[in-house]
Amino acid sequence: MIGRTDDSRPWVGCGLDAAVVATLGERVPQLRFLPFQTADQATELLDNPNCRLLAIDLTLVGDQATRIIAAQRETHSDSTKPMLYVVPQNRDSDLLQQLVHDRSTSQVLFQPLDVDELTYQISHALGIGIEESGEPTNEPGRQLQSAMAALWERFRETNLQRVETVEQATFAAQQGTLTAEERRAGERAAHKLTGAVGTFGFAAASQSARDIEQTLTGTDPLTPASLFRLSDLSFKLRRDLEHSPALPATPNGRPTTIRSNGRTARLLLVVQDAELAERIALAGHLRALDVDIALHFAEARQLIADRRPDVVLVDLAPADGSDRGMAFLAELANDDPPLPVVVLTQRDSLIDRVEVAALGGSAFQRKPLSPQQILDTVTEVLDSEQITESLILAVDDDHVILNSVQTILGSNGLQTVCLDDPLRFWDTLDETMPDLVVLDVDMPHVSGIELCKVIRNEQRWRALPVLILTAHTDPATVHRVFAAGADDYISKPFVGPELVNRISNRLERNRLYRRLAEVDALTGVSTRRKTSQVLERYLGLAQRRDDPFTLAILDVDHFKQINDRYGHASGDETLRRLGELLGQAFRREDVIGRWGGEEFVAGMYGMPEHVGVQRLTTVLEQFQRMVFRSPNGQEFHATMSAGVAQFPENGTDLASLYRTADSALYRAKANGRNRVVGTCQPPPGSSVEHVDVLIAVDDDTLATPLRHALETQGYRVQWLPNGHLAIGALAGDHPHVRARLVLLSIDLPDVAGQTMLQEMRQTDLLKRSRVIVLSARGDETEELEAFELGLFDYVVKPVSLPILVQRIRRALND
Amino acid sequence: MVGKRVLIVDDEDDIREVARVSLELIGGFTVLTARSGNEGVTVARSERPDVILLDVMMPDLDGVATFQALQADEATGTIPVIFLTAKLQVSDRRRFSGLGAKSIIAKPFDPLALPVQVKGALGW
């Protein structure tokens, strides 16, 4: 008998790999996963009322499979015990057709098995929410989680900068130029990462950082083995921090849409709905994709023949309800090499899913999705194709080795050109333009190490990744390998996964470097070169489509004084935080660049000038609220000014738009800075912002978590760090904020709280807003006076955040 | 338990903020913070918190030196101190307990568990 009686959890019978069963058990503790090997055991489970679902990997149970399926049919033709099958990626199997049309089949998944998908499907079939599992169910736990997410958002960049320091040390170590100072910096950064990222839940990254720290500790020279380890670890570190699903996508992280041959990637849209096609196409243009549209399958066939796309998006919503969509997918699947396909469908039926997967569809989405979401999937598919599109040149005089390299790489989708004569290396290199080279160390006439040195001496091949195959891994040989400028070595005899991993790591790394050249290291926004390319493209697009386009130039006010007064590190910090803010404030399709020094540009496609001015005004307000701290502990604030110009009113080319925006910026500076100046006035009436809570508190260690706690509960919050700003916003000549509740610190440095209260009373503000006063003194006279002036509540500091939130909520709801 | 005041001394903004939200939201503590050993000593003297969480590796005045400064001062000498450290080896543990620290919490810590660890160490 399987299972104990004192355990009331529902059962899932698993004819699956033991490791998969163990993982399922960990991830879905609400279910009992019982393994079975034979058809008899499966039948026993099917008969047991506790068993709610059977998951069977048909590639594992082999000839038992047919018997299990037959048993399920015969004995349970009326019951609805769901079955989940894992099947080989076999496109025209009869078995598959049978399964799909079997009523009890709840899902069919393909090998190689994605355990996440399996977990999801099992939980979904049994109505168990896996999202909740492992997560705290209590309210503070949830609050903590969202607070943690926001904190990571805030400190992500700090941690990525630490990774950069580690990478610099690693790189210098590989080049043999590592100074003691760089080594210490790397060690320190790794140490900080260990503590920090682990706390945010990146356990693997924390471990990598710890290992890096240990490797860098001390002053002993790094051995080739530790060098190697270092490069591996720092690669993993960045990958884990950048790719973890726990992370929100970077607002400005545009995916690569340039193919390895330098051409823009081409997307073919096969979408019947012309309006949807237009919207996706526009979004595609903004991501630098070349987009073709076909409204009919016949048109699509013609376009594929004429201008072969890199990816095809097919909408499976035929107006006439026919199955021509599937037939078209079948055609694409038979194309050689097959075209990556993303399929959109309105129905999420099992049959559709299975058929699309069997036809090689790369992704599958349910409508309705926004064009941006649809394109996210398209670019993901393109990115994953990018690596497999890479070409590798392998050079070895030994045919056996060459053959096995080609076979291993080929089965992993990496194309390989083999060369057995090292003397023909240069010609082959020019002919094939590979993305990576594998060289054998011992070859007649010329050794791999010599070839590698020659490659490194050639300007245009300097960045080409080189891996050396060697039977000897003694320190002397390894040293020669790295000294020659090779990126990595692979010891012979090699094992398949290691070879593939090392090669894909290098290829991915190289793509990363390309991306780094487009991102400004300090501020995280695009470099000037990248920005002007994108701006030119947007302008061309705006012209063709007759769309609005807004260009803004921003810079930090009195930047030189910040540098002089608080040090260059503070100046850098100011720019970095402004860059971060801009990245968050703008849409994914807007382009934000650092133009040089303290100057930034922002290009907003499809946005009229007054909207751009509004957006920048929000940025300006957020920026002036930021508190900076110099290395010696002085706190300061910074402001920015911006000039805005609009296409086509102020010019149709970048140079003339830039001139207009620049002179607007000049006017902003001349009129007292800390303002946004456009060429037209915003429409009246749009300037008053309604918020639930205005926090007029100078202490950011209180204001930041408070603001966050309120925002996660759905309140609109604005924070102004000093009294003048608060009075100006609420009561000045042009009040631009209306708040239901004001949390007012009575100890603001610039305006006494009593004065603020009187001011608010005089301007009738107290009739419109409730006020909670926050005081550090808890002075009875002060409290009485404040109540007389008409405040709602009086809170004495220090106060715990949850209690303060409670009192604010009471004031809002009472 | 509510109303207990915890002082966090750590030079890393992110660690400090995570510890703060954890101790406030989950633990219900009132949290004070300091960015350096020196600042920690000053705040401890004026605020007399119920417990101090002290990072070991800080520039200028490090955790151990800060601890000694706190011990030496009559006003702060009796406040229990818990060390936060990423380098947790047996020898460290022995060294810190030898100094008279109440407990040691390893970095990275789990923000959900931190308040429990603190309460456990102090028998609250």
Characterization of the model:
The complex is a heterodimer of chains A (814) and B (124). Chain A is an alpha/beta fold and 814 residues long. Helix content of chain A is 50%, strand content 17%. In chain A, the strands form six sheets. Chain A has a five-stranded parallel sheet with strand order 2-1-3-4-5, with helices on both faces. In chain A, strand 4 (83-87), helix 5 (94-101) and strand 5 form a beta-alpha-beta unit. The longest helix of chain A has 37 residues, at 139-175. Chain A starts with 10 loop residues before the first strand and ends with a helix. Residues 1-5, 131-137, 244-262 and 681-686 of chain A have low confidence and may be disordered. Chain B is an alpha/beta fold and 124 residues long. Chain B is built from five helices and five strands; from the N terminus they run βαβαβαβαβα. In chain B, strands 2-1-3-4-5 form a five-stranded parallel sheet, with helices on both faces. The mean pLDDT of chain B is 86. Classes of the chains: A alpha/beta (814), B alpha/beta (124).
**Considering DSSP H and I runs of 4 or more, what fraction of the residues of chain B is helical?**
40-55%
End-to-end Cα distance of chain A: 61 Å
Strand content of chain B: 15-25%
User: What is the global morphology of chain A?
Assistant: globular
Oligomeric state of the chains present here? heterodimer
- Across the major sheet of chain A, the strand order is 2-1-3-4-5
Biggest sheet features of chain A:
5 strands, parallel
SS content category of chain B: alpha/beta
Shape of chain B: globular
> What's the total helix number of chain B?
5
Overall strand count of chain A? 27
Q: Tell me the series of helices and strands of chain B, N- to C-terminal.
A: EHEHEHEHEH
Q: Give the helix proportion of chain A (percent range).
A: 40-55%
Q: How many H/I helical runs of chain A?
A: 31
Protein chains sharing the most extensive interface: A-B, 32 and 31 residues
Strand content range of chain A = 15-25%
Distance between the termini of chain B: 7 Å
The order of strands across the largest sheet of chain B is 2-1-3-4-5
Low-confidence stretches of chain A: 1-5, 131-137, 244-262, 681-686
Low-confidence stretches of chain B: none
Query: What is the CA-based Rg of chain B, rounded?
Result: 13 Å
